Amino acid sequence: MRRRAFAALLIAVAAVVGTPAGAQSPTPSSRPDGGPGITAGSAILVTLNNGEGRVLFGRRVHDMRAPASLTKVVTALVARDIYKLDDVVVASPLVLQSHGSDLNLEPGMKITVRNLLYALLLKSANDAGMALAANDPFGFDHFVRLMNQKARSLGARDTHFNNPHGLDMIGHVSSAWDMALFTRELLSDPVLADIVKTKTHRMPWKDGRQRIFDNHNKLVLERSDIVGVKTGFTANAGHCLIAAVRTADGIAFSVVMGSQDHYRDSTALLDYAKTIELRVGSGGGGVDIGRSLSAPPAQLSETQTAASAIPGLDPGDDARWLVVMVVLALLTLATIGSRRRSHPLRDAADVLAWVEPFVPPDKP
């Protein structure tokens, strides 16, 4: 009788605490909740409602990765902090040190901060980032320090910047979680939010003609509900994309890093966000819409989806801890006064396969 009671109590403890250590959780594509199957090494999906960010999906959200041109989100945030939109920047010789996607700025050229921000965020012009950073009255290095200070002020823990454009450098890293923090901040700025959803921009050029360029984010060009945000690619970072979409309740956005198909991954995530929204709005019942983006980072370190209710025991959940304590107390009482030679692990092994059988050595 005691043996059965003990086994039942141990099963109850296992049910309350959750899956034993070492057990594998299902991947997003195999989850019964229908979570999105994506190729990105790191990803996060967030819904914004009145500025509050709620995480709907996460995969390795704190992996420190090369962020490529997603870096420019923070470059833009710092530029908005220290410059006025109509300030005129004189291009520094440092603009010649960038490569890849550029405006082909030349030292001495004059261009407004507003136009540099459009070039930075739509065309992903690396020399626009260099021009903004070099224009800092305290110097280029000071601007980069401001970028790191901005990241810390927004709660980022996985980020360190060495440049304003995102070209690969040792130690220049960020994470999907941190990029979500930066994106929430960018979308809260009306000027920057308007820039990243722009399809095409015209700006005056040195020869007196108009310079015209399209948004590099092709989702903005193809879908009317997409409102940004930023593309990125380097050999080290792979394909990266922050994409945002209008929803019935506000905005949802995704971050994918190290993706084999960043547009397909982003589309799958954003469509998943709308599916979750419909289920919640229609009274689908029981859908946990995730953790707050402001929550401690460790809460979403591996692949998790909102609709799966994010398994595991939360130390802040007093009710579940109370159940655990009561069950443990009953377990202790059930074993007190036992007259036969017994061992809890041996009893549990008869019922739970993941408990290793144990037989105490005989006394000499």
Can you describe this structure?
There is one protein chain. With 364 residues, this protein is of the alpha+beta class. The strands form three sheets. A six-stranded antiparallel sheet has the order 7-8-9-1-2-10, sandwiched between helices. The two termini are 29 Å apart. It has helices at 2-17, 72-82, 113-123, 126-134, 140-153, 176-187, 190-196, 218-222, 262-281, 318-335, 344-349; strands at residues 42-49, 52-59, 88-90, 110-112, 200-204, 210-214, 226-234, 238-247, 250-259, 304-305. The radius of gyration is 26 Å and the shape is globular. Strand 8 (238-247) and strand 9 form a beta hairpin. Helix 1 runs antiparallel to helix 10, helix 2 runs parallel beside helix 6 and helix 3 (113-123) packs antiparallel against helix 4 (126-134). It has eleven helices and ten strands.
